[in-house]
Design brief:
single chain; alpha/beta; Aspartate Aminotransferase, domain 1; Aspartate Aminotransferase, domain 2; seven-stranded mixed beta sheet; 12 helices; 11 strands; globular
Length: about 350
């Protein structure tokens, strides 16, 4: 007995962790810094940590009440109805819910290339087809309606990543509105704002007051620092928000995750400290790296280094773990997460030395 044909499916390639690399090289984990996975450089929200501890004694209960509390807090934060908030097990869980709600077998989606692999993976899980639109280095990875309409052909879902991973570019809000206006009536425009707290641009959630063909994804993994709890949410149009009850996995957002998310949402000091540090780290890399960089609106910077595999491997042996972007189709680039001041300075110094050699 075998599973169904998965030959057209892709494997998600995650950034490697410190413990994994240290075991591979037979070295002390304390020697390494990891700047490969766009994690929060300051760690989790302290308020979230406290809520995790306090919620531990209640994990024998299903998370119905705390789920409702977090939904209410998010609805108030974004000035939408409770029904428009779709909690999920990470932002990728929201992608799955949207796929279940929107895709019939054979429907096509349009995803950025390069881009987050799970857009296509989720569509294929739901028996969809995957088409791509270009995000090109020749245009400094600029994002505009022209990118999308270069290949758009009536796909059921169009994915916009803003800020975009791994390049750091973003769609202006008016460009999102233009894309939604010009695509077919039955096309859903999904705006992935996983890095939304790190940009000065307004959220596409504001478009939902007037449109029923835009949905937005947000996460607690980045600015709030609780990636390990896998908590994300979608904000969807009111007219079809009740589909959530028919497509969600029961209690996919755990009691601990919901409690931590509720506390983190109110921890404005941690978010502000994080975003301030990210802005500093981006500017430091722009100024001090002796290699071409690209303007970023996320908590990372894309750097052109030549042979990304060789450079990232050499950096790893020097104790700095960055993301080789070959898996994104960018074999001459690495992505460096914004770390603490010490980590960022070390990464810049080590990379400059590697490139000089």
């Amino acid at each position: 007995m075998q599973p169904r044909d998965l030959s057209q499916h892709e494997e998600y390639v995650a950034g490697r962790g410190i413990e994994e690399v240290a075991r591979e090289l037979g070295r002390d984990p304390a020697e390494f810094v990891k700047l490969a996975s766009n994690e929060n450089p300051l760690g989790p929200s302290p308020a979230a940590v406290g809520a995790i501890r306090e919620s531990a004694d209640d994990v024998h209960h299903y998370p119905k009440a705390v789920h409702a509390d977090l939904v209410a807090a998010l609805a108030e934060r974004w000035d939408v109805s409770h029904e428009q908030i779709w909690l999920a097990n990470g932002g990728d869980g929201v992608l799955d819910y949207l796929g279940r709600a929107m895709l019939d077998p054979g429907d096509a989606v349009l995803v950025p290339d390069p881009g987050f692999a799970y857009y296509g993976m989720s569509a294929r899980f739901h028996h969809g087809q995957v088409n791509t639109y270009p995000v090109e280095e020749a245009d400094d990875f600029d994002l505009s309606p022209a990118n999308v309409f270069e290949t758009y052909d009536g796909e059921r879902i169009v994915y916009l990543t803003s800020p975009h991973n791994p390049t750091g570019s973003r769609f202006a809000l008016e460009h999102v509105a233009t894309i939604a206006e010009r695509t077919d009536d039955e096309t859903l425009v999904v705006v992935d704002e996983a890095y939304g707290e790190f940009t000065d641009g307004p959220s596409a959630i504001g478009l939902l007051d007037e449109r029923d063909d835009v949905a937005v994804i947000r996460t607690f993994s980045k600015a709030y620092g609780i990636a390990g709890l896998r908590l994300g949410y979608g904000v969807v149009p009111k007219s079809w928000a009740d589909a959530y009850a028919k497509v969600n996995t029961p209690f996919a957002a755990s009691a601990v995750a919901c409690a931590a998310g509720l506390a983190a949402l109110e921890d404005g000091d941690h978010v502000e400290e994080t975003t301030d540090l990210v802005r500093w780290a981006r500017e430091y890399m722009y100024e001090h790296l002796e290699a071409p960089t690209y303007e970023s609106h996320g908590n990372f910077v894309l750097v052109e280094v030549g042979d990304a595999g060789e450079v990232s491997e050499t950096l790893k042996r020097r104790g700095v773990i960055v993301r080789d972007c070959s898996s994104f189709g960018l074999p001459e680039h690495v992505r460096i997460t914004c770390g603490t001041r010490e980590e960022t300075r070390r990464a810049v110094s080590e990379l400059n030395e590697v490139l000089a050699e």
